[in-house]
Design a protein that fits this description.
Number of helices: 6
Shape: elongated
Strand content: 15-25%
Strand order of the largest sheet: 2-1-4-3
Distance between the termini: 77 Å
Order of helices and strands: HHHHEEEEEEHEEH
Structural class: alpha+beta
Radius of gyration: 32 Å
């Protein structure tokens, strides 16, 4: 007799308790089936859920970097653990990658929502203050953004 036969017989007994005289175990059966179903769902869903959200370590170890020689931007560069910049450019093999500053100004003194990326002179070996090549404004570490009202105006005007 297989386990399925026992289950079928138990279900039949629950439908017709007057024939067998046995007590119904439908409550226990429902609980067991519930936990089996939950277990199957967890086993199927867990790998999918784990792959949906990148780990916080992966998110915090990626940066937007700029090549000091070519000006090329690498949007999601994975920063090597415990390695100070400059980081190695995967295309050239040279240590020329730095985190740039963002400049949100236009040449006519208006704000814009898409930044220009600027490497500070201290990274490129140049003397003096760093000037944005697009707008000419001075760029410094942790370069401040324009006031919110100017950014809203830029958004509304499509800049």
């Amino acid at each position: 007799m297989s386990p399925w036969d026992d289950l079928i017989e138990e279900i039949d007994d629950q439908k017709q308790p007057e024939k067998t005289g046995r007590k119904s175990n439908s409550g226990v059966l429902k609980i067991v089936l519930f936990f089996v179903l939950v277990g199957v769902i967890v086993v199927i869903a867990l790998p999918w859920i784990r792959n949906q959200n990148p780990s916080s370590a992966a998110v915090t170890s990626t940066r937007l970097v700029m090549d000091a020689e070519t000006g090329e931007i690498f949007d999601n560069f994975r920063v090597p653990k415990d390695q100070p910049f400059p980081w190695k450019n995967p295309k050239t093999g040279r240590n020329t990658l730095y985190m740039p500053e963002k400049c949100y100004w236009t040449p006519d003194g208006k704000a814009k929502n898409t930044p220009d990326y600027v490497l500070l002179n201290k990274f490129t070996g140049k003397a003096g203050p760093t000037l944005c090549p697009v707008c000419g404004k001075e760029v410094r570490e942790h370069n401040p953004t324009p006031p919110d009202e100017l950014l809203v105006e830029a958004f509304n005007e499509g800049r």
